[in-house]
Amino acid sequence: MRILVVEDEPMLCDQLVRAITAAGHTVESASDGVNAHYMGEVEDFDAVVLDLGLPALDGLSVLRRWRAAGRTMPVLILTARSAWHEKVAGIDAGADDYLAKPFHMEELLARLRALLRRVGEHSSAQWQCGAIWLDTRQARVLVDGLPLQLTSHEFKLLSQLMQRKGEVLSRTELSEHLYPQDSDRDSNTIEVFVGRLRKKLPAGSIETVRGLGYRLIDVGLAV
Question: With contact defined as beta carbons under 8 Å apart, do 215 and 168 qualify?
Protein backbone atom coordinates (compact mmCIF):
# COMPACT_ATOMS: atom_id res chain seq x y z
CA MET A 1 0.00 0.00 0.00
CA ARG A 2 1.12 3.56 -0.68
CA ILE A 3 0.67 5.87 2.29
CA LEU A 4 1.20 9.62 2.41
CA VAL A 5 2.32 11.05 5.76
CA VAL A 6 1.83 14.81 6.18
CA GLU A 7 3.50 16.11 9.34
CA ASP A 8 5.64 19.21 9.85
CA GLU A 9 7.36 18.09 13.06
CA PRO A 10 10.52 16.33 11.79
CA MET A 11 10.93 13.82 14.62
CA LEU A 12 7.29 12.72 14.60
CA CYS A 13 7.26 12.54 10.80
CA ASP A 14 10.33 10.30 10.86
CA GLN A 15 8.73 8.05 13.50
CA LEU A 16 5.54 7.75 11.46
CA VAL A 17 7.41 6.97 8.25
CA ARG A 18 9.55 4.31 9.92
CA ALA A 19 6.62 2.66 11.72
CA ILE A 20 4.34 2.55 8.68
CA THR A 21 7.20 1.32 6.48
CA ALA A 22 7.95 -1.43 9.00
CA ALA A 23 4.29 -2.47 8.71
CA GLY A 24 4.93 -3.32 5.07
CA HIS A 25 3.81 -0.16 3.26
CA THR A 26 5.50 2.25 0.86
CA VAL A 27 5.53 5.67 2.48
CA GLU A 28 6.00 9.18 1.13
CA SER A 29 5.94 12.33 3.22
CA ALA A 30 5.29 16.05 3.05
CA SER A 31 6.06 18.69 5.66
CA ASP A 32 3.76 21.49 4.52
CA GLY A 33 0.26 21.85 3.15
CA VAL A 34 1.19 23.08 -0.32
CA ASN A 35 3.35 20.05 -1.13
CA ALA A 36 0.84 17.72 0.51
CA HIS A 37 -2.00 19.11 -1.59
CA TYR A 38 0.02 18.70 -4.80
CA MET A 39 1.11 15.15 -4.00
CA GLY A 40 -2.42 14.11 -3.09
CA GLU A 41 -3.73 15.51 -6.37
CA VAL A 42 -1.19 14.05 -8.80
CA GLU A 43 -0.30 10.76 -7.05
CA ASP A 44 -2.51 7.84 -6.08
CA PHE A 45 -2.33 6.92 -2.39
CA ASP A 46 -4.20 4.18 -0.58
CA ALA A 47 -4.45 6.32 2.57
CA VAL A 48 -3.19 9.58 4.10
CA VAL A 49 -2.11 10.47 7.64
CA LEU A 50 -2.71 14.22 7.80
CA ASP A 51 -1.70 16.65 10.53
CA LEU A 52 -3.97 19.69 10.67
CA GLY A 53 -1.43 22.22 11.96
CA LEU A 54 0.69 22.66 8.83
CA PRO A 55 2.69 25.60 7.46
CA ALA A 56 1.90 27.23 4.11
CA LEU A 57 -1.57 25.65 3.93
CA ASP A 58 -3.43 24.16 6.89
CA GLY A 59 -4.53 20.53 6.88
CA LEU A 60 -8.25 21.29 6.77
CA SER A 61 -7.81 23.35 3.62
CA VAL A 62 -5.75 20.57 2.06
CA LEU A 63 -8.45 18.02 2.87
CA ARG A 64 -11.27 20.22 1.57
CA ARG A 65 -9.43 20.79 -1.71
CA TRP A 66 -8.80 17.06 -2.16
CA ARG A 67 -12.46 16.23 -1.60
CA ALA A 68 -13.63 19.08 -3.86
CA ALA A 69 -11.38 17.67 -6.58
CA GLY A 70 -12.91 14.23 -6.16
CA ARG A 71 -10.00 12.60 -4.33
CA THR A 72 -11.51 9.80 -2.25
CA MET A 73 -8.53 8.17 -0.50
CA PRO A 74 -9.17 7.58 3.22
CA VAL A 75 -7.67 10.26 5.47
CA LEU A 76 -6.70 9.90 9.12
CA ILE A 77 -6.26 13.34 10.67
CA LEU A 78 -4.01 14.13 13.62
CA THR A 79 -5.22 16.80 16.04
CA ALA A 80 -4.21 18.39 19.32
CA ARG A 81 -5.97 16.60 22.19
CA SER A 82 -7.71 19.78 23.40
CA ALA A 83 -8.84 20.92 19.95
CA TRP A 84 -12.20 19.11 19.82
CA HIS A 85 -13.47 21.63 17.29
CA GLU A 86 -10.74 20.51 14.88
CA LYS A 87 -12.03 16.94 15.09
CA VAL A 88 -15.54 18.06 14.16
CA ALA A 89 -14.27 20.30 11.37
CA GLY A 90 -12.05 17.50 10.08
CA ILE A 91 -14.90 15.00 9.89
CA ASP A 92 -17.11 17.60 8.22
CA ALA A 93 -14.35 18.30 5.69
CA GLY A 94 -14.21 14.65 4.68
CA ALA A 95 -11.83 12.92 7.10
CA ASP A 96 -12.46 9.21 7.70
CA ASP A 97 -10.99 9.05 11.20
CA TYR A 98 -9.02 11.15 13.67
CA LEU A 99 -6.40 10.60 16.35
CA ALA A 100 -5.49 13.05 19.10
CA LYS A 101 -1.86 13.83 19.97
CA PRO A 102 -0.04 12.41 21.80
CA PHE A 103 -0.90 8.91 20.65
CA HIS A 104 0.48 5.39 20.73
CA MET A 105 1.94 4.30 17.41
CA GLU A 106 0.20 0.92 17.76
CA GLU A 107 -3.18 2.68 17.82
CA LEU A 108 -2.34 4.71 14.73
CA LEU A 109 -1.30 1.57 12.85
CA ALA A 110 -4.50 -0.19 13.94
CA ARG A 111 -6.66 2.72 12.75
CA LEU A 112 -4.74 2.82 9.48
CA ARG A 113 -5.33 -0.91 8.95
CA ALA A 114 -9.03 -0.39 9.58
CA LEU A 115 -9.21 2.40 6.98
CA LEU A 116 -7.42 0.27 4.40
CA ARG A 117 -9.79 -2.62 5.03
CA ARG A 118 -12.81 -0.37 4.57
CA VAL A 119 -11.83 0.74 1.09
CA GLY A 120 -10.89 -2.76 -0.03
CA GLU A 121 -12.82 -5.98 -0.20
CA HIS A 122 -11.10 -7.31 2.91
CA SER A 123 -13.03 -7.26 6.18
CA SER A 124 -10.23 -8.64 8.35
CA ALA A 125 -6.49 -8.25 8.79
CA GLN A 126 -5.94 -11.66 7.16
CA TRP A 127 -6.19 -12.00 3.40
CA GLN A 128 -6.40 -15.32 1.58
CA CYS A 129 -5.84 -16.56 -1.94
CA GLY A 130 -5.93 -20.34 -2.09
CA ALA A 131 -3.19 -21.73 0.13
CA ILE A 132 -1.69 -18.27 0.64
CA TRP A 133 -2.52 -16.31 3.80
CA LEU A 134 -1.25 -12.77 4.37
CA ASP A 135 -1.58 -11.17 7.80
CA THR A 136 -1.48 -7.37 7.47
CA ARG A 137 -1.33 -6.90 11.24
CA GLN A 138 1.83 -8.94 11.75
CA ALA A 139 3.25 -8.47 8.24
CA ARG A 140 3.70 -12.20 7.68
CA VAL A 141 2.73 -14.74 5.04
CA LEU A 142 1.78 -18.39 5.37
CA VAL A 143 1.57 -20.99 2.60
CA ASP A 144 -0.24 -24.20 3.53
CA GLY A 145 0.08 -23.07 7.15
CA LEU A 146 3.86 -22.72 7.01
CA PRO A 147 5.60 -19.34 7.41
CA LEU A 148 7.13 -17.85 4.26
CA GLN A 149 10.26 -15.73 4.44
CA LEU A 150 9.94 -12.67 2.20
CA THR A 151 11.99 -9.52 1.74
CA SER A 152 10.22 -6.20 2.31
CA HIS A 153 9.83 -5.64 -1.44
CA GLU A 154 8.49 -9.15 -1.98
CA PHE A 155 5.97 -8.62 0.84
CA LYS A 156 4.82 -5.28 -0.60
CA LEU A 157 4.44 -6.80 -4.06
CA LEU A 158 2.47 -9.77 -2.75
CA SER A 159 0.29 -7.45 -0.64
CA GLN A 160 -0.70 -5.46 -3.71
CA LEU A 161 -1.44 -8.61 -5.70
CA MET A 162 -3.41 -10.08 -2.78
CA GLN A 163 -5.45 -6.92 -2.27
CA ARG A 164 -6.53 -6.98 -5.89
CA LYS A 165 -6.41 -10.70 -6.57
CA GLY A 166 -7.80 -11.68 -9.93
CA GLU A 167 -7.09 -8.22 -11.38
CA VAL A 168 -4.33 -7.55 -13.87
CA LEU A 169 -1.78 -5.06 -12.52
CA SER A 170 0.79 -3.49 -14.84
CA ARG A 171 4.49 -3.43 -14.02
CA THR A 172 4.33 0.36 -13.79
CA GLU A 173 1.44 0.24 -11.33
CA LEU A 174 3.21 -2.33 -9.18
CA SER A 175 6.47 -0.37 -9.18
CA GLU A 176 4.63 2.78 -8.01
CA HIS A 177 3.44 0.85 -4.96
CA LEU A 178 6.91 -0.53 -4.30
CA TYR A 179 9.06 2.58 -4.43
CA PRO A 180 8.70 6.06 -2.91
CA GLN A 181 8.21 8.97 -5.27
CA ASP A 182 11.76 10.28 -5.01
CA SER A 183 13.42 6.95 -5.86
CA ASP A 184 14.17 5.48 -9.25
CA ARG A 185 11.18 3.48 -10.41
CA ASP A 186 12.29 0.80 -12.84
CA SER A 187 9.34 -1.34 -13.84
CA ASN A 188 11.74 -3.96 -15.20
CA THR A 189 12.78 -4.87 -11.66
CA ILE A 190 9.21 -6.04 -11.06
CA GLU A 191 10.03 -9.04 -13.25
CA VAL A 192 12.83 -9.93 -10.85
CA PHE A 193 10.59 -9.75 -7.77
CA VAL A 194 7.80 -11.65 -9.52
CA GLY A 195 10.31 -14.35 -10.41
CA ARG A 196 11.43 -14.61 -6.78
CA LEU A 197 7.85 -14.77 -5.53
CA ARG A 198 6.95 -17.50 -8.01
CA LYS A 199 9.69 -19.70 -6.57
CA LYS A 200 8.20 -19.30 -3.07
CA LEU A 201 4.47 -19.50 -3.84
CA PRO A 202 2.41 -22.45 -5.12
CA ALA A 203 3.07 -23.07 -8.82
CA GLY A 204 0.86 -20.97 -11.07
CA SER A 205 -0.19 -18.47 -8.39
CA ILE A 206 1.10 -15.46 -10.34
CA GLU A 207 -0.13 -15.39 -13.90
CA THR A 208 1.49 -13.30 -16.63
CA VAL A 209 -0.96 -11.54 -18.93
CA ARG A 210 1.11 -10.80 -22.02
CA GLY A 211 1.48 -7.10 -22.72
CA LEU A 212 -0.55 -6.09 -19.67
CA GLY A 213 1.04 -7.31 -16.43
CA TYR A 214 0.43 -9.84 -13.68
CA ARG A 215 -2.42 -11.16 -11.57
CA LEU A 216 -2.68 -13.40 -8.54
CA ILE A 217 -5.06 -16.34 -8.89
CA ASP A 218 -6.32 -19.09 -6.63
CA VAL A 219 -4.61 -22.09 -8.18
CA GLY A 220 -7.14 -24.32 -6.47
CA LEU A 221 -9.76 -22.81 -8.75
CA ALA A 222 -7.59 -22.46 -11.86
CA VAL A 223 -8.54 -24.44 -14.97
Answer: yes
Annotate 78-126 with DSSP letters as a single string: EEETT-HHHHHHHHHHT-SEEEEES--HHHHHHHHHHHHHHHSS--SSE
Of 44, 4, 63, nearest to 28 by C-alpha is: 4
Q: Which residues contact 120 (CB under 8 A, 6 or more apart)?
A: 163
Note down the domain range covering 191. 126-216
Residues 6 and 112 in one domain: yes
Distance CA 197, CA 206 (A): 8
pLDDT of residue 114: 85
Residues 145 and 53 in one domain: no
* Residue 3 bridge partners (DSSP): 27, 47
Q: Please give the single-letter amino acid code of residue 132.
A: I
Looking at the fold, whether 37 and 96 belong to one and the same domain comes out as yes
Distance, in Å, from the CA atom of 85 to the CA atom of 83, rounded to the nearest integer, reads 5
| Residues 95 and 136: beta-carbon distance below 8 Å | no
DSSP assignment of 2-33: EEEEE-SSHHHHHHHHHHHHHTT-EEEEESSH
Which CATH number fits the domain that encloses residue 180?
Answer: 1.10.10.10
What confidence score (pLDDT) does residue 174 get? 85
Q: What is the pLDDT of residues 123-156, one digit of tens each?
A: 456 788 889 998 877 778 999 989 999 988 888 8
Query: 94 and 179: one domain?
Result: no
Amino acid at the residue 35:
N
Residue at 222 is within a domain: no
